[in-house]
Design goal:
homodimer, 436 residues, alpha/beta, Aldehyde Dehydrogenase, Chain A, domain 1, Aldehyde Dehydrogenase, Chain A, domain 2, 2 domains, four-stranded parallel beta sheet
Chain lengths: 436, 436
Amino acid sequence: MASSSVASQSRAAGPNEFASDALGVEMARIGRAARAAAAELATASTAIKNAALGAAATALRADRAAILAANARDMAAAQGLTAAQTDRLRLDDGRVEAMARGIDDIVKLDDPVGRTLATMERPNGLRIQRVTTPLGVVGIIYESRPNVTADAGALCLKAGNAVILRGGSESFHSSGAIVASLRRGLATAGLPQEAIQLVPTRQREAVGHLLAMTEFVDVIVPRGGKSLIERVQRESRIPVLAHLEGNCHTYVDGAADLAMARRIVVNAKMRRTGICGATETLLVDRRCTATHLPALIDDLARAGCEIRGDAATQALDKRVKPASDADWATEYLDAIIAVRVVDGVDAAIEHIRRWGSNHTEAIVTEDAAAAERFLNRLDSAIVMHNASTQFADGGEFGMGAEIGIATGKLHARGPVGAAELTSFKYVVRGAGQVRS
Amino acid sequence: MASSSVASQSRAAGPNEFASDALGVEMARIGRAARAAAAELATASTAIKNAALGAAATALRADRAAILAANARDMAAAQGLTAAQTDRLRLDDGRVEAMARGIDDIVKLDDPVGRTLATMERPNGLRIQRVTTPLGVVGIIYESRPNVTADAGALCLKAGNAVILRGGSESFHSSGAIVASLRRGLATAGLPQEAIQLVPTRQREAVGHLLAMTEFVDVIVPRGGKSLIERVQRESRIPVLAHLEGNCHTYVDGAADLAMARRIVVNAKMRRTGICGATETLLVDRRCTATHLPALIDDLARAGCEIRGDAATQALDKRVKPASDADWATEYLDAIIAVRVVDGVDAAIEHIRRWGSNHTEAIVTEDAAAAERFLNRLDSAIVMHNASTQFADGGEFGMGAEIGIATGKLHARGPVGAAELTSFKYVVRGAGQVRS
């Protein structure tokens, strides 16, 4: 069933390779279909959207064999991937079940559409309400992580948006099979299948078309590495909700409780090294170089972390390799940490302003004034006091599933979940008022 | 005093014409200075920001003669402007006072920065707050309307942003004089003058530099005609908060009260024809062609409005000229209206979806179901029932001064005031929590 759905989308969409002209025509067809589907989804009831999501989760479970077969084709063809990339590409029974369960969780979220954010009663009797609406058509461009296909498709559906998905080319067949299941869910609930579409080719030029379809696509969400996001930001003529890298910092202040600092630092770096909220640079107040830093280095080294430090850090422990400026700028996403000794909270702030990516930064201190200074003066999407940067996550924030962590200043910052995939409009009700 | 301030900015900024290399260097200098000023403004107290605004209003009043002299230079040099453009360029005593009073009003607004939008207490004891922050550095590109210089500069300051202003070339000296007064206000309150800067040349290439300074500018706000906005959206590598045209519609339903419809239509079109909330197309339900449309046409014609109608409208009144598809797409900003007879609310919705610009649309009807259908199914920034589209205005919404009406889906829609010129961050307070 799933593979026949894949085939039917594939037939409707043409072959996997398009001549240059045909590709533009095909992308425009997809865009137009998405726009039409979005108009239907915008007024779909919560019950119908949830029915579609529930049916999609059921379809994912029922189609597990077909999805794993498609994934096996992708795995067999994959070349030149790192171990981490291969791991992200691979699906198994547990991961398919996790995708389905993720959709079950999205069903439970409140409907983010149709909420009244504000009501203004005007002296002239006009009643003005700000009411949430879907964004419309969302284009999501991501790397070869099949699970993102299910998460992003379901979140967009919950928020009443049509979505055009463009996954990494290594995950082409896996994503196609997953999208087929999601579309079966839409059809079961009587919603248009064009509400979830996958770009039907691995050709890179398709991304260029997607980024130029201003009449059909309302927002582009790139999710992936720095080069992908930079390309999208450079080329897109459509507004971009960017998820830039997470070069996150933990600053251990001179007034930090040592036991707490040790617990937080090793967790912030090593709990999972591949997530964007993992700490990449540890800054330590010069006042506690002797008292705190040796234990922090030892904890990290014992946990299997490579340590690259400035001169002051190298002097403390032979396991510390030299750090260069490149290290301050790097999001390792690996068991490596950069360590630098700084002169107090202001120097920590200065370092983070210069080298950070405005994602997540934490201070560990018992000094309330230092903490407030750090929280106030840094303008990252997330700033923390006495907590692990690994909490930078929509689920941990109580927001449910997320597409990622936005680091721009417009629209959404921090975890981007269903509520962040909405816009709003003003609804004005009068009784014949005219303006004087 | 004002002219010496102008001169001092002019000296600091170099001459009015830059060689190509020098222009890039100068724009980068301005950007870097704005970024540094923004860091100071972000933590400035409400009292200090208001003191700067108050001093700026005082300086505008004190500098009136210098501002009018600068405006006289601009008026003398202006060529090829329409009457409406010339009117917008001209300043007089009353208009300078109106700018100062506009700033007085901005002083009275609540500070939009530092507001807690949401608080989440997590089961693990983390306390997560979403707190408003300034956007950072805002670049505003506008036409030759000197008053926008004061409005935009003051609104950005209230929201804790540094601003780089690029006004139309015909208003170059007027804007320079106004900025000099605003900067004197900043200096009086001890804030960095670089928080408000004017691009110190009329060269068009300066805009290209501004749109590429991703490291210094957080958001670009274009305000003006369609071609300006389209250029900015096409070229900008910085996120754009766009104010597109207002091709607004009023739909008179078959169940409309005739007296109310007459009052609303003539107000929506003719109260002020040059504002973006003015109705440009009147749609009339075929059911009331005979009962309502003749009076509506007569009211508009008597008010001095040119009427361009479809065949059904032309058949009713000899004063109606023929309309073509181009009329459905046109924002006249003038005493001209396009009129079309449609088959009920769904046909009105279809027309607006096809030809509208997602700004403001109104339905006049006593039929509650038709009204709700119109309000729900149209996705313009502002939708109205039984009210004049001329209410599409931040002041009328109770939001205070505005930079304009945003028609995009991201960040802000509808009136953009001080609150819309902010972003937010998450502040997380813990007691040593680590993620399991």
